[in-house]
Design a protein that fits this description.
- By secondary structure, the protein is of the alpha/beta class.
- It has a domain at about 460-560: ANL, C-terminal domain (GMP Synthetase, Chain A, domain 3, 2-Layer Sandwich).
- The strands form six sheets. The protein has an eight-stranded mixed β-sheet, with helices on both faces. The chain has a five-stranded mixed β-sheet with strand order 12-13-14-15-16, sandwiched between helices. Strands 17, 18, 20, 21 and 22 form a five-stranded antiparallel β-sheet that branches.
- α1 (about 25-35) packs antiparallel against α2 and α2 packs across α3.
- The radius of gyration is 23 Å and the shape is globular.
Amino acid sequence: MTDERPWLAAYPEGVPADIAEPARALTANLDGAVARFPDRVALDFLGAATTYAQLGDQVARAAEALRALGVGPGDRVALILPNCPQHVVAFYAVLRLGAIAVEHNPLYTADELAHQLADHGARVAICWDKVAATVAATAERTEVVTIVGVDLTAALPLLKRLALRLPVARARQTRAEMSGTLPGGALSWEALVAGAPPIAASVEGPGAGDTALLQYTGGTSGTPKGAILTHRNLAANAEQSRVWVPGLRDGGETFYAVLPLFHAYGLTLCLTTAVQIAATIVLLPRFDAGMVLDAAKRRPPTFFPGVPPMYDRLAAAARERGTDLTSIRYSFSGAMPLPPKTVETWEALTGGLLIEGYGMTETSPITVGNPMSQRRRIGSIGVPYPSTRVRIADRDDPARDMPPGEPGELLIQGPQVFSGYWNMPEETERVLLPGGWIRTGDVAVMSEDGFLSIVDRVKELIITGGFNVYPSEVEDVLREHPHVADAAVVGLPSERTGEEVVAVVVAAEGASVDAEATLRWARERLSGYKAPRRLELVDELPRSQIGKVLRREVRERLLASP
């Protein structure tokens, strides 16, 4: 019997067609790294180093501290943190208990957080102390009873912590940017973990089939919902990502975590895959080209996952400063199309490879990648990962496959595909087909030799700077403005972020809309990346026969206007 996977011919030597299905929980990867490379630096946070032995000890103490708070198997624990050592520790501590980590963007407003917190029902939230007050503001609408605040400055090197105490303006500003005041009743993460003993080995941990993570996404409809990802899903995608780059060395790589760990893409490559191979993870609380280049001098990167604008900005800054980035052998780009010019510039600078891949939250998230070799095909998203099958199906009849070269909806099957949405069986049934196939909502074309290209997005998602923006969410906010009767939100091309959020609004009867004032109003109610960058006023919005706003037509009109 022949293997009906033409893309296998594109695999570099050493990349297997299939992986073994994970039989243990994701926490076993950390245990293995601690046992094999105890003295290897696991985390670097602005110069402060944590070895794998120290990381394992901190996770064990944090797990016991959370257990003392009543956290147990199946409980949801909200993580609302930027990239920092405490984020890594909290994630694995929650999983060690058999509880479920729920990742949230710390830039969310109280309303945005309240919806998700209420949906999954977490009683404990571990959050950056700067946003603890925002979490507390959701109390009447959620089940959160315990807020644990994380002070980022506590993870800094000693000299930097001491410098922040100096009575000078710069120290005060940096201190204010990194930490905040906890509301009454909130607990200190640092005190909680420091005072806890390591969890006893007799406390049973999770199994491979248990739920590890709820990752919120708009999926294919735009309504935020929690994708249920098991330990097996996450461990499989970590293994698939590891074998995709056969040159990776256990205990010998340095991954740069500039992608947020609360995002599925950053979590898989910068947290689970990196820990599996006992890599050093250089954590940066936000992307800043200067901060990255400073870190590169101290601890040169070897693997750099990112999004296209990051590579463009880093390349320009590195040329300007004369920083050597030739230590970077592998770079992986996702979340938005990768321009050929970006590839050319980055590879000339580093001497390494920059490839593009594809995924979605519901698939842990990576399913497709370009070969990490000269077989890669610039302009394509690549070929399916090991143990991953894909189909290009008729959009109206997913049981019918389209021939090579013909567009259709991309369907995916593999061990990384989620088990459904949290408390949303109808939404689950809508996207999961018999046999474990997921409908991505993306229109793609497959070549004769198995390379895939994305043609269009059925779901009208806006991807700006690597973050997903769902037009309906922004439109709902704009319609709350007293001077706005209706709104349509679309994404327009942007060299800086891939796409920018643009709103078109209809004024309420008898009212006038001040564009700048309305944009400021929206920014107060939406996370920065979701807020529109431009606002246009029109007399009416184009609609279909059933009254649905035609966003595609809105976008085409904006692109055609001078």
